[in-house]
């Protein structure tokens, strides 16, 4: 069975139901709508991003549903991204954040996790100034605020 | 253009949860939006050091460490604080703070802090006496203001001022939902203080006591109904052990609801009454048993035939020995029968009577095993065809692995390769002291060589490996091995041991690790 997804810029995407249902949002919509064939509008996702999202869902169509892992170690790791996902995420920054926003909106947790881990890996080991540079962040702290926070950071590092 | 400023705050938090504490703080300091998003994470755990003068002795000055967090700033963020650690005595105003969500409070005191004496370069130790007296009054007041505290930890260096009865009373009377009490380093003296101490202990579910203690009559009247887990290490004081082993056991026997018992006997004999207590099923819910520092040649058969079905078992004693070879088979069978059903964590690393055959017995039978620490495994004894390893959920394995031939090297690597969930593998010798090595591993021994020539490549199945160790086992590894490890073990984060006898070469390989942010111990 296939469904039709419509991007914000009015492009139609024909997708297997099983693939589309990797998105919990779409899954719920399909359950509500029932047997209807009408296309599903996704006003928050452009065609370019939707193409990527569908590519991800296709590749992972047979993955088991994620169950929260019972581990003793609560620390989350970002260095266990599988190879295909890593290549998949080699996109420019704009697309990276678009994918994260889309995964959040469409409720595709594994894709959201991969996106967050990818961003975390960019941040790792960088100074605040380097992080700002990497993401074009404007520093809107006053010099006093910044000094205070820097002091508190030292305390955090001394643990 | 879509960038990081377009994503909602809850996703910033999600990203930050994948970062180390340090990196999280750095992200927070990039702009106001990020700081606001992460404020609850930044202030969740607060570790403050006092600004009082910090000297060990008049000859060894430590530059005073100023508090980076003023009490005003702490107060502003008090609603976010879940854990607070106070290192040193503080100015009065810190002890007047309320933390509506505080669940863990840690007092860490040591004698390197001294009363501020304005202008003086050196401290005046006579002024310290009232300061130390005030400390526990202040601590008690802080506790009274924060009834949400569940976990309380008090670490005092010796010699030290004794928290008074009123301090312990504050604990007994204030906490709504006490969970764990951890105390170390002091010796309550007066029986009044001791009684208050025992009354405070009585309200907790978990106790971790490492103190030079005395017992009082009150103790025999208290039931400790909530107590589930206890780690007891009564340290002998100047006059020897005041709370002796039999009295300790008498107390433990009244704590029927124990699920976890960690008892260090500080070089005393394991009383036979303990075996009796086990036989009488004194602790029917016991799942986790750890016995340490006992001076005895324990009859393992007697002990193990009385053990309840445990999930974790740890035995640490120099003296643990089997009585004779004839008893060996029977003893081990008893051990097997009682323990192997449910055991998840087994630590026999310092029980030198636990032989290689026994270690393999564990690996061949304990299906649920998650962690196994043992003394030695002799690869010659491995026979995967007739006795395959079943502990396929094993996450941590620490054992010396003795290997004499190429064939047994293959067998060892073959066996290890089956443990696909392994995250920590350590075959190093560093856990033993020189005298232990001389006594239990005399002569020349050959240990597992972590090299591709010997069969290391079979461990390519261990994709979850995070830490590895091979200290003091005469390795001769090369760049090739390291490159292979980087490819095969993507989660590797720590390596313990020397790569080579050649210091220069070893350093070069360590550099390779550091380039990849893998730490070396």
Overview of this structure, please?
The complex is a heterodimer of chains A (159) and B (521). Chain A has eight helices and three strands, in the order E-E-H-H-E-H-H-H-H-H-H. Chain A has helices spanning 17-20, 24-33, 47-59, 83-88, 93-106, 109-123, 128-135, 143-157, and strands at 2-6, 12-16, 40-41. In chain A, strands 2-1-3 form a three-stranded mixed sheet. The mean pLDDT of chain A is 87. Chain B has a domain at 1-42. In chain B, strand 15, helix 14 and strand 16 form a beta-alpha-beta unit. The longest helix of chain B has 21 residues, at 125-145. In chain B, helix 5 (125-145) packs parallel to helix 6 and helix 11 (300-306) runs parallel beside helix 12 (325-339). In chain B, 33% of the residues lie in helices and 18% in strands. Chain B has helices at residues 9-16, 21-28, 32-42, 71-76, 125-145, 165-174, 191-201, 217-221, 245-253, 272-279, 300-306, 325-339, 356-365, 406-417, 434-440, 479-488, 503-515, and strands at 45-49, 54-57, 60-62, 83-87, 104-109, 151-156, 180-184, 206-211, 229-234, 260-268, 288-294, 312-316, 345-347, 371-378, 396-402, 424-426, 467-469, 494-496, 519-520. With 521 residues, chain B is α/β, with parallel strands linked by helices. Chain B has 17 helices and 19 strands.
Brief rundown of the structure:
With 159 residues, chain A is mainly alpha-helical. Chain A has eight helices and three strands; from the N terminus they run E-E-H-H-E-H-H-H-H-H-H.
Structural class of chain A: mainly alpha
Number of strands of chain B: 19
Would you list the SSEs of chain A in sequence order as H and E?
A: EEHHEHHHHHH
**What global shape of chain B is seen?**
globular
Report the mean per-residue pLDDT of chain A as an integer: 87
In percent, how much strand structure appears in the residues of chain A? 5-15%
Based on CA atoms alone, the radius of gyration of chain B comes out at 27 Å
Shape of chain A: elongated
Name the largest protein-protein interface in this structure: A-B, 45 and 38 residues
Helix content of chain A: 40-55%
Number of helices of chain B: 17
CA radius of gyration of chain A is 20 Å
Strand content of chain B: 15-25%
Q: Return residue spans of chain A where pLDDT drops below 50 for at least 5 consecutive residues.
A: none
Query: How would you sum up the major sheet of chain A?
Result: 3 strands, mixed
Please bin the fraction of helical residues of chain B.
Answer: 25-40%
Output mean pLDDT of chain B.
86
> What's the number of extended β-strand segments of chain A?
3
Number of helices of chain A: 8
Task: Give the quaternary arrangement of the chains.
Answer: heterodimer
């Amino acid at each position: 069975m296939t469904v039709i997804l419509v991007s914000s810029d009015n492009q139609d995407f024909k997708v297997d139901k099983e693939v589309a249902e990797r998105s919990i949002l779409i899954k719920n919509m399909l359950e509500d709508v029932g047997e209807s064939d009408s296309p599903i509008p996704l006003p928050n996702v452009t065609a370019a991003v939707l193409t990527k999202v569908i590519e991800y869902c296709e590749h992972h169509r047979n993955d088991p549903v994620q169950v929260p892992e019972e581990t003793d170690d609560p620390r989350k790791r970002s260095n266990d991204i599988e190879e295909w996902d890593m290549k998949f995420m080699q996109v420019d920054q704009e697309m990276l954040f678009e994918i994260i926003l889309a995964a959040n909106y469409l409720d595709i947790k594994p894709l959201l996790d991969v996106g967050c881990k990818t961003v975390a890996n960019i941040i790792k080991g960088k100074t605040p100034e380097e992080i700002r540079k990497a993401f074009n962040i404007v520093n809107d702290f006053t010099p006093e605020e910044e000094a205070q926070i820097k002091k508190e950071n030292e305390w955090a590092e001394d643990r | 253009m879509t960038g990081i400023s377009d994503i909602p705050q809850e996703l910033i938090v999600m990203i930050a949860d994948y970062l180390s504490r340090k990196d999280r703080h750095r992200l927070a300091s990039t702009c106001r939006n990020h700081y606001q998003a992460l404020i609850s994470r930044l202030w969740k755990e607060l570790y403050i050091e006092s600004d009082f003068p910090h000297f060990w002795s008049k000859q060894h000055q430590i530059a005073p460490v100023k508090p980076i967090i003023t009490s005003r700033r702490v107060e502003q963020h008090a609603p976010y604080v879940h854990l607070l650690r106070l290192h040193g005595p503080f100015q009065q105003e810190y002890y007047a703070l309320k933390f509506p969500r505080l669940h863990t409070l840690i007092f860490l005191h040591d004698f390197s802090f001294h009363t501020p004496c304005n202008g003086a370069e050196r401290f005046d130790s006579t002024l310290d006496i009232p300061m130390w007296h005030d400390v526990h009054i202040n601590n008690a007041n802080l506790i009274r203001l924060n009834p949400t505290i569940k976990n309380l930890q008090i670490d005092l260096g010796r010699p030290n001022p004794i928290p008074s009865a009123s301090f312990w009373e504050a604990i007994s009377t204030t906490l709504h939902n006490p969970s764990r009490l951890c105390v170390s380093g002091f010796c309550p003296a007066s029986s009044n203080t001791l009684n208050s101490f025992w009354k405070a202990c009585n309200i907790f579910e978990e106790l971790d006591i490492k103190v030079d203690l005395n017992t009082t009559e009150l103790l025999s009247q208290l039931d400790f109904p909530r107590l589930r887990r206890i780690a007891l290490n009564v340290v002998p004081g100047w006059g020897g052990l005041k709370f002796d082993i039999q009295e300790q056991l008498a107390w433990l026997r009244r704590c029927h609801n124990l699920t976890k018992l960690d008892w260090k006997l500080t070089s005393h004999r394991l009383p036979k009454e303990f075996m009796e207590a086990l036989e009488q099923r004194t602790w029917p819910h016991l799942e986790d048993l750890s016995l340490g520092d006992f001076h005895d040649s324990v009859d393992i058969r007697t002990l193990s035939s009385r053990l309840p079905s445990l999930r974790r078992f740890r035995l640490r004693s120099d003296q643990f020995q089997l009585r004779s070879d004839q008893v060996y088979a029977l003893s081990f069978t008893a051990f097997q029968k009682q323990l192997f059903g449910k055991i998840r964590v087994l630590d026999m690393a310092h029980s030198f009577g636990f032989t290689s055959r026994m270690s393999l017995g564990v690996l061949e039978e304990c299906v649920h095993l998650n962690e196994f620490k043992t003394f030695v495994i002799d690869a010659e004894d491995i026979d995967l065809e007739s006795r395959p390893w079943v502990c396929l959920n094993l996450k941590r394995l620490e054992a010396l692995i003795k290997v004499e031939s190429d064939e047994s090297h293959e067998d060892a690597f073959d066996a290890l390769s089956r443990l696909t969930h392994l995250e920590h593998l350590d075959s190093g010798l560093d856990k033993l002291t020189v005298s232990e090595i001389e006594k239990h591993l005399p002569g020349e021994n050959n240990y597992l060589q972590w090299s591709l020539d010997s069969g290391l490549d079979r461990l390519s199945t261990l994709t979850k490996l995070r830490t590895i160790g091979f200290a003091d086992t005469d390795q001769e590894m090369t760049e090739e091995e390291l490159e292979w490890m980087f490819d095969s073990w993507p989660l590797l984060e720590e390596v313990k041991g020397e790569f080579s006898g050649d210091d220069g070469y070893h350093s070069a390989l360590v550099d390779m690790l550091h380039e990849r942010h893998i730490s070396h111990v």
